[in-house]
Amino acid sequence: MMQEHYHQIPVTIIRLTDVMARTGLPKSSVYEKIKNKEITSPIAIGSRRVGWPSYEIDAINKALIAGAELKEIKTLVAKLTEERQIISEVF
Fold this sequence. Notes:
Layout: E1 13-14, H1 16-23, H2 27-35, E2 43-44, E3 50-53, H3 54-65, H4 70-90
Antiparallel strand pairs: 1-3, 2-3
Helix pairs in contact: 3-4
């Protein structure tokens, strides 16, 4: 059986204000896009704080800039969410 090795890669967690700045969206639109599965859901980083891995927001922005269609964005968000679950199971 082949073992998978995961290397620790530093992940920057960004807050809502940074997501808004990177996407150019207001708070309500960010949460609307989360609801519509066009942006990944935030992760808990404290009892009352949430954030996003910066690489997820950057990947979504890169796809949008490249002209990805809505279906492709939703597929990317699903993939990022799935990868997040796999990583959390490993650690």
